Design the sequence.
């Protein structure tokens, strides 16, 4: 346990630590571009230069601790060098923050204001390079903004292992380029390089020029794409920046999805499917209860459902494994005696989708199978003779498999043909409209929060289950 | 002859590079002595005692580098001869590779024996054609004579050699960049720590030595460390090959005993400057060392200590003589173009700094100089010094600030009058 001194503070460090790690642990911030906690050290941005007494300047990210070393992270010498490094980095950078998607969360922008604030000392033309280079169907590359920190190439080599990116040419004409025979579009984790890019060089085509990031706020959520249950942030418009004209659908839509760093589950990464959650949640919604396809009021639909439940002799429930822990527990508690329950797999793997790998992606494409199985067992759905009522909760079950004489109560969120075939159809809210928790395949429980208000007529499944279990007439 | 000769000690003929003639000169005697009589530790001790300094540029003691490698730490070790001779003005290793390749091979075998190396490499500059053919021929001869491969000379010692041709990057001559290139990656230099003698090629302990440094080993083993120390000065033992070019009557490669008077060497051995012109300045050891003016060198001896005292270094031995009447602004432009072109682009200060230096000097030469340009050149040089992964950024800064320190007036003249004081001349003219 060598004792080292950072800015005069004595710190007990571990032998295998670098000065960067020790400084971060003890609240001494050292600026950096290329360093990343999950990637190997390349030490090429030279922004983390610190001064060591008797040894001069060196980079903190590659400096092993040594007993008694005295490190200064903010001496005059260090400040002068930081300023100079920012001069070098911005020498050929276009400084087009006004039209850059990264503006507002750009490390270079932040450091410039914090450590330099100086105008460029150069009078010469900048080195021009490629704009909007097509890296894949998801990602664009702006080589002029690139500061060659090599986080993206290291990510594809060390984390996603697709080896899709490399550096072409040398000197100030170096460019990040895809490797010829390894397309980035086949890397299911490719979009992480957009997050880890410290500047606006890597751009999401889906988010390109959609919104300034300061109009958005993140809501913590859980990706329902597979049993991993990665924690994510759903970015949507801040209430004070809601659009009053133009396309008001933007107020109710997910602008982008980013990972929420969670060492217990996904670390700082998510897969591309998780980035596309809007495609799942923003399908056309069902917002009216129906009896045999005829729109009715919520109380009328509930009355009819309760009547069917009361009249049934043998009732079966197909429980959604997209239900939250709270909903599943309420169902077990309130209706577990009334129905014979099976767990239903709402989503199956899509054609062309990666089934499973050893980074994040799991074969089970549903978020809460673990908790659902704990409560309702492992049996596959089956219908005994004499089944006269089936409650189907959630999408993805072929109604042709239901017993022909059974009446159907259907709880679903999206506008689908089955809705009209059910005897009672009740629209329920989706994940982005309610609180809850999912239990992932490892047993880790993660919480999700609502971003939007559900439409009138759409109920939370938990309230609906309570209402169905209520013996008397009443409004939920 | 500028002093005693250790490497260039024979007349060069059409066949003097062949194994048979090398044997006639006593070649591979040191190898037989090593394998027959010496323990590996003895070899390391002998080389350490000789005080041999690296000939690639940094003049780091070869023995100290070797001592870091633990003989039996259970890992494979690698030895690499750095023949990627790319420093402008330097072509001394080329002489060894062309005319005496077996002295390199013999020395590498001795070093491999000392360092427990099973596979050694020669990383040779891609543009070297004849040197490559001569070296490849020598390797073939050596294999045929049983000097490489399994059980060399019946000693039980085995060693193989690979000659690898570079692809033309200056920065691959930097030891760690060389290793990256040898591993098949882009020739990016690596951060230290770890040192290459701890984690080098394929993350194993690796010794990278310059061709000339290695070529001295055979002589040291044959004649002993004491005999080697008797050559040269106490602080700079041995000889050095200097490749002399520029404004000089007899350019070429010369072996000089260290401690030899500099002006005597230039005037008598190299025939002086054409047309009897005075020496304006000399680049002592490759353009990455700071230039010295004619007045600076008049009383200097060619030894490390003298050059260090004068604020420069013997570097790689690439001596460029520059006569009076040469435009230093145009000269700096050539140098900056080189560094800009050769920067690998890995780390920030050098990637952008070298290009920035180049553009400023270009502008001054074109007559668009600004009053703050000199200050800016110093600024870039200063913040490239010690902030980069390898020495290329530092070297560009040294070259620039070295010339600015001595010839600032020419730059000021060029900026003020929008034309060069010496007409942008780089030739050695008969009359001014």
Sequence:
């Amino acid at each position: 346990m060598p004792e080292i001194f950072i800015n005069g503070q004595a710190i007990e460090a571990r032998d295998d630590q670098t000065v960067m790690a020790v400084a971060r642990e003890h609240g001494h911030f050292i600026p950096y571009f290329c360093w990343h906690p999950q990637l190997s050290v390349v030490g090429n941005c030279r922004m983390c230069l610190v001064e060591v007494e008797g040894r001069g300047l060196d980079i903190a990210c590659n400096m092993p601790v040594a007993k008694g070393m005295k490190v200064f992270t903010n001496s005059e010498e260090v400040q002068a060098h930081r300023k100079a490094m920012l001069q070098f980095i911005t020498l050929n950078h276009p400084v087009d923050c006004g039209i850059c998607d990264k503006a507002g969360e750009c490390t270079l922008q932040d450091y410039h204001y914090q450590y330099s604030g100086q105008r460029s000392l150069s009078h010469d033309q900048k080195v021009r390079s490629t704009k909007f280079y097509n890296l894949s169907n998801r990602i664009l590359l702006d080589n002029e903004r690139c500061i060659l920190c090599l986080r993206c190439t290291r990510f594809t080599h060390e984390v996603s292992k697709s080896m899709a990116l490399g550096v072409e040419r040398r000197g100030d004409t170096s460019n990040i380029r895809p490797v010829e025979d390894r397309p980035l579009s086949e890397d299911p984790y490719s979009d992480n390089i957009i997050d880890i890019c410290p500047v606006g060089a890597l751009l999401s085509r889906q988010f390109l020029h959609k919104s300034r990031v300061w109009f958005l706020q993140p809501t913590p959520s859980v990706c329902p794409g597979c049993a991993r249950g990665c924690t994510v942030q759903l970015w949507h418009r801040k209430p004070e920046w809601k659009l009053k004209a133009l396309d008001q659908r933007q107020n109710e839509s997910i602008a982008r999805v980013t990972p929420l760093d969670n060492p217990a589950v996904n670390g700082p990464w998510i897969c591309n499917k998780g980035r596309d959650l809007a495609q799942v949640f923003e399908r056309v919604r069902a917002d009216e209860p129906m009896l045999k396809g005829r729109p009715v009021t919520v109380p009328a639909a509930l009355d009819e459902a309760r009547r069917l439940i009361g009249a049934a002799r043998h009732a079966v429930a197909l429980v959604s494994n997209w239900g939250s822990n709270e909903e599943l527990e309420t169902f077990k508690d309130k209706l577990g005696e009334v129905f014979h329950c099976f767990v239903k797999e709402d989503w199956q793997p899509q054609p062309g989708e990666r089934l499973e790998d050893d980074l994040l992606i799991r074969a089970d494409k549903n978020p809460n199978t673990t908790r659902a199985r704990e409560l309702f067992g492992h049996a596959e759905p089956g219908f005994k003779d004499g089944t006269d009522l089936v409650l189907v909760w959630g999408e993805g079950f072929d109604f042709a498999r239901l017993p022909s004489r059974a009446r159907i109560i259907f709880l679903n969120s999206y506008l689908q043909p089955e809705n009209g075939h059910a005897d009672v159809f009740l629209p329920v809210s989706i994940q982005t409209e309610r609180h809850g928790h999912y239990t992932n395949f490892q047993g880790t429980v993660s919480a999700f929060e609502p971003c939007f208000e559900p439409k009138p007529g759409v109920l939370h499944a938990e309230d609906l289950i309570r209402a169905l279990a209520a013996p008397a007439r009443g409004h939920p | 002859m500028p002093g005693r000769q250790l490497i260039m000690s024979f007349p060069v003929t059409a066949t003097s590079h062949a194994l048979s003639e090398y044997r006639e000169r006593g070649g591979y005697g040191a190898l037989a002595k090593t394998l027959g009589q010496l323990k590996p530790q003895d070899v390391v001790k002998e080389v350490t005692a000789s005080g041999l300094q690296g000939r690639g540029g940094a003049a780091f003691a070869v023995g100290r580098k070797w001592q870091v490698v633990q003989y039996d730490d259970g890992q494979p070790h690698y030895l690499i001869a750095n023949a990627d001779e790319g420093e402008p003005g330097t072509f001394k290793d080329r002489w060894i590779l062309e005319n005496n390749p077996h002295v390199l091979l013999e020395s590498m075998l001795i070093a491999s024996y000392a360092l427990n190396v099973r596979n050694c490499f020669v990383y040779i500059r891609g543009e070297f054609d004849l040197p490559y053919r001569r070296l490849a021929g020598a390797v073939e001869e050596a294999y045929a004579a049983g000097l490489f491969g399994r059980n060399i000379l019946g000693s039980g010692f085995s060693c193989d050699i690979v000659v690898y041709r570079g692809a033309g990057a200056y920065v691959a001559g930097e030891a760690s960049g060389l290793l990256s290139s040898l591993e098949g990656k882009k020739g990016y230099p690596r951060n230290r720590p770890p040192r290459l003698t701890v984690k080098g090629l394929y993350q194993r302990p690796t010794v990278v030595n310059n061709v000339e440094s290695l070529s001295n080993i055979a002589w040291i083993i044959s004649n002993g460390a004491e005999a080697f120390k008797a050559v040269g000065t106490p602080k700079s033992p041995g000889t050095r090959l200097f490749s002399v070019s520029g404004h000089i009557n007899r350019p070429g490669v010369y072996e000089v005993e260290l401690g030899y008077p500099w002006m005597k060497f230039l005037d008598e051995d190299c025939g002086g400057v054409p047309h009897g012109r005075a020496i304006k300045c000399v680049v002592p050891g490759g353009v990455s060392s700071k230039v010295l003016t004619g007045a600076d060198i008049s009383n200097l001896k060619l030894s490390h200590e003298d050059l260090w005292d004068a604020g420069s270094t013997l570097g790689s031995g690439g001596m460029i003589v520059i006569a009076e009447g040469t435009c230093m602004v145009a000269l700096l432009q050539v140098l900056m173009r080189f560094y800009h072109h050769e920067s690998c682009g890995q780390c920030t200060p050098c990637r952008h700094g070298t290009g920035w230096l180049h553009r400023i000097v270009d502008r001054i030469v074109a007559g668009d100089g600004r009053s703050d340009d000199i200050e800016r050149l110093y600024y870039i040089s200063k913040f490239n010094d010690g902030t980069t992964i390898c020495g290329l950024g530092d070297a560009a800064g040294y070259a620039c600030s070295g010339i600015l320190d001595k010839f600032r007036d020419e730059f000021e003249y060029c900026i003020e009058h929008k034309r060069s004081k010496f007409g942008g001349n780089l030739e050695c003219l008969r009359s001014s």
User: Anything to note?
Assistant: Chain A has twelve helices and 22 strands. The interface with chain B takes residues 41-47, 49, 56-57, 59, 62, 64, 81, 84-85, 87-89, 91-92, 121-125, 127, 147-148, 166-167, 169-174 of chain A (CB under 8 Å). The longest strand of chain A covers residues 216-222.
